[in-house]
Design goal:
- The complex is a heterodimer of chains A (about 350) and B (about 350).
- Chain A has eleven helices and twelve strands.
- Mean pLDDT of chain A is about 90; it is low at about 1-10 and about 340-343.
- The longest helix of chain A is centred in the middle third of the chain and has 18 residues, at about 200-215.
- The radius of gyration of chain A is 21 Å and the shape is globular.
- By secondary structure, chain A is of the alpha/beta class.
- In chain A, β7, α7 and β8 (about 220-225) form a beta-alpha-beta unit.
- In chain B, the strands form two sheets. Chain B has an eight-stranded mixed beta sheet with strand order 6-7-8-3-9-10-12-11, sandwiched between helices. In chain B, strands 2-1-4-5 form a four-stranded antiparallel beta sheet, with helices on one face.
- In chain B, a hairpin with a 2-residue loop joins β9 and β10.
- The longest helix of chain B is centred in the middle third of the chain and has 18 residues, at about 180-195.
- The two termini of chain B are about 30 Å apart.
- Mean pLDDT of chain B is about 90; it is low at about 330-338.
- Classes of the chains: A alpha/beta (about 350), B alpha/beta (about 350).
- Chains A and B meet through α7, α8, α9 and α10 of A and α7, α8, α10 and α11 of B.
- Bound molecules: adenosine-5'-triphosphate (ATP), adenosine-5'-diphosphate (ADP), iron/sulfur cluster (2 copies) and magnesium ion (MG) (2 copies).
- The site of one magnesium ion has 3 residues of chain B, from α1.
Chain lengths: ~350, ~350
């Protein structure tokens, strides 16, 4: 049987994750924050990783750069960038890729900057460490100024600023500009709009779309907010308790016809300004403790469609012929299982 | 008589830039009413909330609670007012003392205000845990904040506030640090206290979705750099915004539907001037306003009534375009909230 997600290695595939499992800790106390996940990110995509807190989104994002914090480690599967496996790559090769090919913007842009040095000095340090990208540092500085304009910040002022002089929204945008400094092909952002007010959220949303259009950079971002997904993403992977439960284009994910019950619950939980919030439904319960997972489908204890089958058999991730995959017994009842992921 | 009357309040922090962070703010709430404060980061929402809760004193102007100026309250009446106005903060991590168990967090307030005694306090706390949807056991009272999830911590903060039987709760961004999936449950919990105990709310949020859900039947006050620029009934203000800033905030909201997103983007009206300093001359919003004209740079528009208690501070409030993507589906009948 073929894994649907690993067969599409065409020229446009940049990042390919195959049957990836990431564990924290060893032996009896270990938990799998990411389990048997397969997905591929093509050049030019804006790929969203979605799920509630604790579902493994950040861990999956970190594994794309091999920066999962200890005691976390990859215990199975591969992460390939342009066909090269990062899991088995040497430290030196990895360091050459990070920043220059794959860049990361951390959640809240916190700890991203050194508080006692100006932003400009920090940018100079990065440029000095990568003479291969900008042999002439002046050119690098000019590029950074251009990036600051793209993220709608005044270059001169920001260059001389210390982190403490920037608001949360500004810090987030400076962090995005810094991540793009070395012209990476992929930038990965963890919760880029979380904790920002609505105008700063809108600014970041528009900026991500602009950067994508103007620089052609491929974007992977993590969020728990499906409204932000609808605004920005072209492709989406939804995670629940370490597992991929649905992936497809943004239109496929939001279309009601064939949708994972978890995704539906997430959409219905948004207090929306559109309908006076009258139809809003909280998702009861919580993401299960990864050390004490329910048998069968991990979402079953919170699922309104759960049946006996769900409580003892884990549902496979199935396609309907295209790239839209859903892991749910009920939704897939009529789907002929010709394409099965490595579950 | 209003429950709360904020009159002409201006506030400047001693340690700040010297510029006032609140300018001549007027705001009243009735008993059991919900008034939402909306505006971008730094506009002064928390500052106003803290003044209302008595955590700072305003530089000028007055705040009255149940008809009495709080600056003049003494002795038992002062203690009573302190108990009757409570604040719940944004950050469920920062607002609980990490060194105190949940029991030690909840007990002192009830004992101080004689709402429980040494013998009854444990039972009262268990009752509270149950009321806020937490594990109502003595074991839970022994736990520390770091052992709880963000949502559980926020429930503990809410339990601490309602344990003092307040009349008014200032709820400052109580759901913004929580996952979207947890927000409605927390809002429903707070709404149940409004419904069952008649507690009024000053509800601070920058998220209109959350505000529309929570403050139905109540009012919204929109703030821009310390000025209330628009105030009115929730539904009316959202459907027919009468200040360009309110329009900008509504237009900015991420829409959880890719089809509507494309529709809105096609309508145009992009995101220019989402940031920018307030103007110190004329209309405070004139640096960012898409409708700005000469008169706006010379004169400050007063906050005036445009009918049924809807106030706005804009010379050209009848020129604000409608938000088509937000109002297109309004024709369909809406189910009532349970
Ligand atoms: N203790 C303080 N000392 C000095 N300045 C302060 C203090 N607290 C707040 N400020 C300033 O007052 C202004 C209003 O801040 P406030 O916290 O009330 O805004 P807010 O609307 O609640 O913002 P947010 O949405 O970010 O919480 C800001 O310019 C802020 O920097
Ligand atoms: N450094 C760590 N040590 C131990 N467990 C961790 C660590 N980081 C994350 N985890 C666990 O991995 C799971 C997924 O976490 P994370 O990837 O941060 O999820 P998300 O980003 O979706 O909130 C959680 O159960 C979390 O507790
Ligand atoms: S497999 Fe069953 S429990 Fe799981 S999401 Fe589908 S219906 Fe719900
Ligand atoms: S008064 Fe003028 S500048 Fe101020 S909000 Fe109205 S149109 Fe804009
Ligand atoms: Mg995370
Ligand atoms: Mg605040």
């Amino acid at each position: 049987m073929n894994s649907v997600n690993s067969v599409t290695t065409d020229d446009r595939t940049l990042l390919e994750i195959d049957d990836l499992t990431v564990a924290f800790g060893d032996g009896a106390g270990s938990v799998r924050a990411v389990e048997n996940v397969a997905l591929s990110v093509a050049a030019g995509e804006i790929y969203a990783l979605v799920g509630e807190s604790g579902c493994g989104k950040s861990t999956l994002a970190y594994s794309m750069l091999q920066i999962v914090p200890p005691p976390g480690r990859v215990i199975g599967g591969n992460v390939r960038f342009r066909g090269r496996d990062l899991v088995t790559m040497s430290k030196r090769e990895l360091n050459a890729l990070r920043g220059a090919e794959l860049a990361m913007v951390f959640q809240g842009a916190m700890n991203a900057f050194n508080p006692v040095v100006t932003i400009g000095t920090q940018v100079d340090h990065i440029l000095q460490a990568h003479p291969e990208v900008f042999p002439d540092p002046k050119e690098g500085r000019q590029h950074f100024e251009h990036l600051l304009e793209l993220v709608q910040l005044p270059p001169k002022r920001i260059w001389k600023s210390f982190e403490s002089q920037l608001s949360g929204g500004m810090k987030q945008r400076v962090a995005i500009a810094v991540a793009l400094l070395l012209r990476p092909s992929v930038v990965i952002l963890d919760e880029p709009t979380t904790a920002l007010d609505v105008l700063n959220q809108r600014l970041v949303i528009d900026i991500l779309k602009d950067l994508h259009r103007d620089l052609g950079v491929t974007i992977v971002f993590v969020t728990h907010d499906l409204a932000v997904v609808a605004e920005v993403a072209t492709r989406v992977a939804v995670m629940y308790a370490g597992r991929l439960v649905e992936t497809g284009t943004v239109e496929e994910i939001f279309k009601a016809e064939r949708r994972h019950p978890y995704v539906e619950a997430l959409i219905n939980a948004i207090p929306s300004v559109l309908d006076a919030g009258l139809t809003v439904q909280p998702i009861g319960g919580a993401v299960p403790n990864l050390a004490d997972l329910p048998a069968g489908c991990r979402f079953a204890p919170r699922c309104r469609l759960a049946e006996d089958l769900c409580r003892h058999t884990e549902p496979p991730l199935l396609g309907d012929g295209g790239g839209h995959l859903v892991a749910c017994h009920v939704v897939n009842r009529d789907v002929v299982p010709m394409e099965v992921s490595k579950a | 008589m209003s429950l709360l009357d904020v009159r002409n309040v201006t506030h400047t922090y001693d340690t700040g830039t010297g510029r006032p962070v609140l300018h001549n703010v007027d705001l009243s709430t009735q008993e059991g009413e919900i008034v939402a404060l909306v505006g971008e980061s730094g506009c002064g929402k928390t500052t106003l909330g803290r003044l209302i809760a008595g955590l700072h004193e305003p530089s000028s102007g007055s705040i009255s609670f149940e008809g009495s100026d709080i600056a003049g309250l003494k002795g038992k009446r002062r203690k009573d007012w302190r108990r009757r106005v409570q604040m719940v903060h944004q950050d469920p991590y920062g607002s609980l003392n990490p060194g105190l168990t949940i029991g030690s967090t909840l007990a002192p307030g009830m004992l101080r205000h004689k709402l429980a005694n040494r013998r009854t306090v444990q039972a009262e706390m268990i009752k509270l845990l149950q009321q806020v949807g937490l594990d109502a056991t003595p074991v839970f009272l022994q736990r520390y904040p770091h052992q709880l999830s963000g949502g559980q911590r926020q429930r503990v903060s809410i339990a601490r506030a309602i344990s003092l039987q307040p009349k008014l709760i200032v709820a400052d961004e109580v759901t913004s640090m929580l996952d979207v999936s947890m927000r409605v449950a927390i809002l429903d919990l707070l709404l149940s206290f409004q419904r069952d105990r008649g507690i009024g709310f000053v509800f601070i949020s920058h998220d209109f979705g959350v505000v529309r859900y929570f403050a139905q039947g109540g009012r919204i006050a929109v703030m821009f750099y310390g000025h209330i620029v628009e105030e009115g009934p929730v539904e009316e203000l959202i459907k027919t915004p009468s200040h360009p800033y309110t329009h900008m905030l509504l237009q900015a909201i991420p829409v959880p539907d890719p089809v509507l997103v494309r529709k809105r983007d096609a309508e145009g009206g992009g995101s220019e001037r989402l940031t920018g300093d307030p103007s110190t001359k004329g209309c405070v919003f004139s640096n960012r306003c898409p409708l700005v004209r000469d008169v706006c740079r010379k004169e400050a528009p007063p906050l005036i009534d445009i009918g049924s208690g809807h106030r706005t501070a804009c010379f050209f409030s009848d020129e604000i375009p409608p938000l088509k993507h937000l109002t297109a589906d309004e024709a369909s009948p809406q189910p009532t909230r349970s």
